[in-house]
Write a structure and sequence with these properties.
alpha+beta; Elongation Factor Tu (Ef-tu), domain 3; 2 domains; six-stranded mixed beta sheet; 12 helices; 16% strand; globular
């Protein structure tokens, strides 16, 4: 590791992924110098393909952008209000995805890197940090993500006395658009959301579906090392064939569900559907939604060409599998994401046990603001637990059971319950009004979160100007 004698009156961030870039941006925007350390290209990982900052290695989707009834959409909106570089650049490099926010992954990475490297208070150092940071680095954020350098990972494990918790993360394949047979496939979003044609749909009848599932289950899979064999999968990024092992119909009620779709050739709903989502701004690449896989490359291509419309598919990237690691945050971290065993180290991103691009960046956003406040000698006010940021922080720093802790996406189950007050009977019928459910209940969570965030931001502004 070079430059270990750098001045301590700055924040050091290890890891140039989603969380690290977001943290660096927040620190710099607060007027504090920051050094962002990224080991690529000097040391590569099993999943990254470039040395770009904020490279997306799995899907290109940031999931739902609905801020009125979806928890991740609320998180999107909160991040926009908090000057998130990740959401700003995602909006600028977005591609059609119905009600979701998806990006051109190459344009997105380039846009983030351009902003980061142009900031006068951010210095990017391309080097691998192979041990715990030197003592003179008094304010450090470790945002190395699920693919932490083995040496640094071992150093953290030795410090905490904890074994790594790990899970496998599978990558979906990407298909060249011009190799898709549009005589069979068609454009449509479920229930015609977004532009109504943000996905390419490949229909399957019952026989075709059964044949596909059987082929996936029979295909040769990637081998695991002995120490990986008992590693659990993250539920939100499960290989399609592992899903099928739970029951032959499981994919048909998951990523292959045909609801809200009509095959224009028949005028009917198909038995099952494989959806492809645009992966770049040019619209030349499409990823197969929900088809993360651990099948070997050769069999994988043969199996996916059984999908009607993909019989001549040309793959820009086949699916893959990599091992993710995270720490037992509820036990190891304090309320400001500092490591109890060494408080000068703060953690952010997926390593804290949040799952998803947006969640990782959100924790990076919070860690960056915490570190900036620490450097300036002012107290950091935690966001209210009613907000998406507050709910995530509360979950990983004590709300979750430390012994059974697993990666978690943002969801309304992490938010404090709604206080609806006393619900008086109707004066005419004498019946009490029904408690809001479903979409109505989610809308109340969303409205409360964004209102609470506005109050929180106003209080922060008053504090900074007083």
């Amino acid at each position: 590791m070079e430059n270990s004698n750098m001045n301590s009156d700055r924040v050091h961030i290890i890891g140039g992924g989603m969380a690290g870039c977001e943290a660096a941006w927040q620190v710099a925007q607060a007027g504090v110098e920051v050094v962002l350390h990224e080991m690529r290209p000097h040391r590569k990982t099993d999943a990254h393909e470039t040395d770009g900052l904020a490279e997306l290695v799995c899907s290109n989707s940031f999931r739902s952008d609905d801020a009125t009834g979806n928890a991740v959409g609320v998180l999107h909106e909160e991040m926009r209000k908090l000057d998130s570089i990740i959401l700003t650049m995602a909006d600028k490099t977005s591609v059609p995805a119905g009600g979701a926010l998806a990006v051109d992954r190459n344009l997105f990475s380039s846009a983030v890197e351009e902003k980061i490297t142009a900031h006068p208070l951010i210095k990017v150092e391309r080097e691998e940090i192979t041990s715990l940071p030197p003592e003179e680095w008094s304010n450090v954020i470790i945002a190395t993500g699920p693919l932490t350098s083995p040496d640094l990972s071992a150093a953290i494990r030795n410090l905490t006395g904890e074994d790594d918790l790990a899970f496998f993360d599978a990558i979906a394949p990407i298909v060249h658009r011009d190799s898709i047979n549009m005589d069979i496939a068609w454009f449509q979003s479920r229930y015609d959301k977004g532009d109504g044609k943000d996905y390419i749909n490949c229909p399957l009848n019952e026989d075709q579906y059964t044949r596909l599932i059987t082929a996936m289950l029979d295909a040769e899979k990637m081998d695991f090392r002995e120490w990986e064999e008992n590693t659990p999968y993250f539920e939100g990024c499960m290989p399609i064939e592992v899903m099928a092992e739970r029951g032959v119909d499981t994919p048909r009620f998951g990523p292959m569900k045909p609801v809200g779709l009509t095959d224009p050739r028949t005028g009917k709903r198909p038995y099952a559907v494989v959806q492809l989502r645009q992966d770049n701004a040019l619209g030349t690449l499409y990823n197969i939604v929900g088809f993360q896989t651990k099948m070997r490359y050769g069999p994988q291509a043969e199996v996916f060409r059984l999908i009607p419309g993909l019989e001549n598919a040309s793959f820009a990237r086949l699916g893959g599998l990599h091992r993710n690691t995270f720490i037992r945050s509820p036990k190891l971290l304090d309320r400001e994401l500092r490591l109890r065993a060494m408080p000068r180290l703060r953690f952010a991103g997926q390593m804290t046990g949040v799952e998803g691009y947006v969640e990782s960046a959100a924790i990076g956003l919070m860690a960056g603001r915490m570190a900036a406040c620490q450097e300036k000698g002012i107290a950091f006010e935690l966001p209210p637990p009613e907000t998406a940021h507050g709910a995530l922080l509360a979950h990983i720093t004590g709300g979750a059971n430390a012994e059974t802790f697993q990666p978690m996406n943002i969801n309304f189950g992490l938010f404090p319950e709604l206080d609806l007050g006393e619900r008086l009977p109707d004066p005419v019928t004498g019946r009490k009004p029904r408690r809001p459910k479903g979409r109505d209940r989610k809308a109340l969570f969303a409205e409360r979160a964004l209102t609470s965030l506005e109050t929180y931001i106003s209080a922060q502004v008053r504090q900074e100007t007083s």
